[in-house]
Design goal:
154 residues, mainly alpha, 2 domains, three-stranded antiparallel beta sheet, 3 strands
Length: 154
C-alpha cells in the first residue's frame, strides 16, 4: 500500500491501482468524514447520532439538512432514527437520487421519510431534472469566413 500526498488531495494506492482519494485538509481542527463508512454502525445505534462530534459532516447537501430539521420538528425523539434511514438509503442506493427525492418532497411540502424517499427512488417513478440545458448548434462556417478574411488581409 502506498499513500501519495499532494497539495490538494491524498491518494491511497494498492499495487498499481488507486483505491481511494480524499481532500487534504491543512491546519488544526479540520476533519473529513465520509458517512458511507460509518452509516451501518450509526443505524444500529441511532442514539449516538444526536451527540456525534462530527454530526455536521453527515449532511451531504442542504436538502438532507432541511429534511433533518423538519423531522426534528415533527418528532424530536424519532428524528435521528428516521434521518439515519434516509442517509443509509443514500449510501446504499444513490446519494444524488436521495437528494433529488428530498428536494421534490420538500418542494411539495410533504413530510420527509425513508419510506417516501424510497418510493421516489423506485424505477417506475421519474424525477424532474434539476435544470434543462439547451446548447444551440454552432455554425462553423463563421470561423471559415474569419480565416478567409485574415488570409486576404494578410
Amino acid at each position: 500500500m502506498e499513500v501519495r500526498i499532494y497539495a490538494e488531495r491524498i491518494e491511497v494506492w494498492y499495487g498499481q491501482r488507486q483505491v481511494h482519494s480524499l481532500p487534504r485538509l491543512s491546519g488544526h481542527g479540520k476533519h473529513h468524514i465520509n458517512y458511507r463508512y460509518i452509516i451501518d454502525s450509526l443505524v444500529r445505534k441511532p442514539g449516538a447520532f444526536e451527540n456525534y462530534r462530527y454530526r455536521e459532516e453527515l449532511f451531504p447537501s442542504s436538502y438532507f439538512r432541511m429534511a433533518y430539521d423538519i423531522l426534528r420538528k415533527q418528532d424530536r425523539l424519532r428524528a435521528h432514527k428516521e434521518y439515519l434511514k434516509i442517509l443509509h438509503l443514500a449510501a446504499k442506493e444513490s446519494e444524488s437520487g436521495v437528494n433529488a427525492a428530498l428536494r421534490q418532497l420538500l418542494e411539495l411540502e410533504q413530510p420527509p421519510s425513508a419510506k417516501a424517499v424510497k418510493q421516489h427512488l423506485s424505477p417506475g417513478l421519474e424525477t424532474s431534472p434539476i435544470a434543462a440545458v439547451s446548447v444551440p448548434e454552432v455554425n462553423l462556417a463563421i470561423y471559415d469566413a474569419l480565416l478567409q478574411q485574415e488570409v486576404l488581409a494578410g
